[in-house]
Amino acid sequence: MVCSASNAFHDPENSTDGLHTYDRQYQLVTDFPVVEKLNTNPLVALPDGVCAVDLSVTVDTDEL
Questions:
Q1: pLDDT at 15 over 70
Q2: Cut 0.85: pTM above it
Q3: Is 44 left (phi over 0), alpha (psi -120 to 50) or beta?
């Protein structure tokens, strides 16, 4: 597994990195209606952030 953990979601004093990531994913789907489905499974907590091991995005091709 190769992950690029983003420091944008990492706060060493806060254990809510995963929640922040899910909030960002929700915002992505909200901002771009063409995204019908965003599936992240699993989301792994690492010492320097979080990593989506498997991510899939379904888009509405009629909206492109």
A1: no
A2: no
A3: beta
